[in-house]
Amino acid sequence: MRRRLPGDAPLSAVGAGHASSASAPSEADLAQLSAAIAAGEDLGPFVRRAFACGRPEPLLASLRGAARDREAEIEELCRAHFHDFIRAVDDLRSLLADADALKGFLSASHSALLSSAAPLLASLESFLAARSLAGNLSSALASSRRCVRLLALAARANAHLQAGNHGLYLALRAVDAIDRDLASGPEPLPLPTLRRMLLSVVPAVRAHAEREISREFSDWMVSIRAASRHLGQVAIGRSAAARQRQEELRSKHRLLEECITLDDDGVGDLDDFAAAAATADAADGAAAASFDLTPLYRAMHINQTLALGERFKKYYLENRKLQLTSDFDVIAATPFLESHQVFFSQIAGFFIVEDRVFRTGGGLTSRPDVDALWDAAVGKMVSVMEDNFSRMQTANHLLLITDYAALLSATMRRYGYPVGMLFDVLAKHRDKYHDLLLADCRRQVAEALAADKFDQMLMRKEYEYSMNVLAFGIQSSDITPAFPYVAPFSCTVPDICRIVRSFIEDSVSFMAHGGGGDTYAAVKKYLGRILSEVVDASILKLVDSGSGLSVSQAMQVAANMSVMERACEFFTRHAAQLCGVPLRAVERGRRDFPLRRSRDAAEALLLRLLRAKADEFMRQSDGVNWMADDPPPGGNEYANEVIIYLETLTSTAQQILPLPVLRRVLVAVLAHISERIIELFLNDSVKRFNANAVTGIDTDLKMFETFAEGMSSLFVDSGQESAKNEMKGALVEARQLVNLLMSNSPENFLNPVIREKSYNKLDYRKVAIISEKFRDTSESYFSTFGTRGARQNPKKKSLDTLIKRLREAS
After folding, report:
1. 548: CATH
2. CA 172 to chain centre
3. What are 48-99's pLDDT values in tens digits?
4. Exposure of 555 in the CB half-sphere (CA atoms within 13 A)
5. Which intervals of the chain are annotated as region Disordered (predicted)?
């Protein structure tokens, strides 16, 4: 077959029509074939395509050309490495001679070594025979020594067993050594009889030790239960003594607090108390050490030696649980009031023992185990107390059981047991106890308020003054007044003070028996409750209902509240003294006045009644002549009556009301009068008024300002420097309006600077309404006919401008 030359037509065009030329391999396909052959890729796709086209000849020609190219490359590569191959063969042939020479040298050396080692092998065989003999002799001696040692251990164990329970541990150690030797020895004993004897002795000794220690432990469990009750009684008694010493210390502190200086005797008392406390703690520790735990420790140690430690722990815990359950049955046969001390003492002693076992038992009990026992005991005590407290109707019985339960809680807390649930039960019934006290006090306060006529209290004798004033620290001066003495308060104040003081003393008494924790904090909380929920609520109810109180009675109620503010300070000090809290701490922790709601309500009631009274006098303003030909020479009649009433009221109020309260009331009344004067001008019944009417209102206003200045001097003398401006400031709105109406240039009101300086309290809408009603005296309905062509009054012109501008602004 002829090779295709470069100028020949492609193979795809040979013998093929025009229709099949598109599917024959092209030059691009042949180029891809060459690239694939060069890269070593799979030629399957090219072969399948060539045969699919039915013309494989071009593909075959291309493959043959590629093969020829590869053969040329291989031939070139062989020519390049031919000389290296010949050189390697020569090197191998030269090494063959050297290897033969080395083989002969090694054979000669081996023969020489065999001939020289024969005597040494004979000596080695002799040595091995001698060493085997020596090993047999050593094994015999070791077996003999082992038997002697085991017999000595057996004799020692027998001697310890004859010594009683105190030698059980040493006997067990001896038999343990025998057991270890028999179990872990290098070989069994050569004497089978001795081995059988020892194997039978070991378990027998262990069983004997287990029986003896179990008997001793059972005896200890019986004895410790009887000792626990006495131990609990002693511990609770120590707690009671410690509480008594604390009460004595608080009383001493209270006496020291009342003194101005501390002397050496006070310091000595504190030292005596510290020494007594240390002695009590030592005695408590001696009582705790009075019971013996040695049998328990011995039983635990022996069981651990017998590898029964975990079983003994479970056995101990189960037996203690059974003992605790049986202790709960103490109260089943007798009433709780009679058996509660035995019940609490037994539980206290039980857990004092458990605390010591936990701390010194070396892991016999764990904290979760002790906590589980304590939780069960607390749950039982809580349920028993809840059940019995719910059925108790006598406060003394409740107090007696609460007292002993509190002592139990204090005792167990010293040993680290959580007593929160016990204190919660006591606190729960403490609230119930105080709720009953509050209900009784609420009834007493209501009766006291209902019986009071709210007149000043009269005291004819000094003992009455001491009983009603000095006893509660509500005196305004340390100087004893002359008798008969008219107090600034009514009889309600000392009655309420007696009720609250009695409540404080009852609360402190209950808290001392069953409180626990911060007694003063709890008493202060209940003191706040009686002041807010009882006293404040009762007075607030009285004030809100009104009950037909007059102005003088309302003033007396307000005066009573001022005195009660001093009484509340006495209540806090009295509670602190009973609780042994220094008065310095009470002064630092003083809170707001707890009766401020009723105090504010009383002042609001007084102010409301005074405003109503002022409105009653202001209604007489119907007699004001708004178009008078001449101004009233002495002001309007309503103003004179209001001034007379205020002066009379003030003279009485100065005797009973504190000056700050009186100042607040007068400022509010004067502000109300100022508003009422503005309302006079705005009244729809006033169609117009003239300058003479304004002059009369100005006279009225000057009378009120004179009264305010007179009262301001009283307040300034008492140290209230801001009272003068405050009193005059109450009338500022009415004064600015009158000044505007009397001004020659009313339109100055439109100037922002002047308005801010002189008329800043006026509302422009009110000014617009009032200015439209204002008419000059010379102005009448027909005056324009007679004055036509005359020069217009500048004031009227200014007023018209003001009215026009205000009308546009609105």
Report:
1. 1.10.357.30
2. 56
3. 888 888 878 888 888 888 888 888 888 888 777 787 778 777 777 777 777 7
4. 23
5. 1-20
